[in-house]
Design brief:
alpha+beta; single chain; 172 residues; 16% helix; four-stranded antiparallel sheet
């Protein structure tokens, strides 16, 4: 199992925190790297959550979620929402998104969604959501590869326009 996980870890991904709130106020948040766009028309995204995650019942009950795409330097948020703790939101700057799910301050992008459907994905639940609201800002993403965080090095978008290619650099 570990060697399969290590092989999967060779695929560099962005990092997001998915948040939700139920109508009765229960909040949950979890770090994921299983976020992807599915469709532009209608606007659909998906992400996956372990069936064993303590927050799984909250996400299944809520019917809404927000995806917060983390920026470089937000690895502390990734680590916080990846670990079980009584209140993952304590001391974290948020604002309520459309429908209520918390939006994390400083994220590169936010997608507020209603859960359209869920699918069995082995030991995970696959959530498909319809995007009702989104926003994004400029900046560099937080990247995860081979069990560690990294950031793109270089001049970002200006380098892209000039034909240079950003590289993944591990923070010191």
């Amino acid at each position: 199992m570990r060697s399969l996980r290590d092989a999967f870890g060779q695929f560099a991904t962005g990092v997001a925190v998915v948040t939700t709130v139920t109508p009765d106020g229960d909040r949950a948040g979890v770090t994921v790297n299983s976020f992807t766009s599915v469709s532009l028309d209608p606007p659909l995204v998906l992400w996956c959550l372990s069936r064993n995650a303590p927050s799984a019942p909250v996400f299944l009950r809520a019917g809404r979620f927000a995806v917060n795409v983390l920026a470089a330097g937000q690895d502390h948020l990734s680590q916080r929402f990846a670990r079980p703790m009584p209140d993952k939101f304590a001391g974290v700057e948020t604002r309520p998104g459309p429908g209520g799910p918390p939006l994390l301050a400083g994220a590169l992008a936010h997608f507020a969604c209603r859960t359209l459907t869920t699918h069995d994905g082995g030991d995970h639940v696959i959530f498909v959501g319809e995007v009702g609201y989104f926003q994004h800002s400029e900046g560099e993403p937080l990247v995860f590869h081979a069990g560690g965080y990294g950031e793109f090095a270089g001049a970002g978008r200006a380098a892209d326009r000039a034909g240079a290619r950003p590289v993944l650099a591990r923070p010191a």
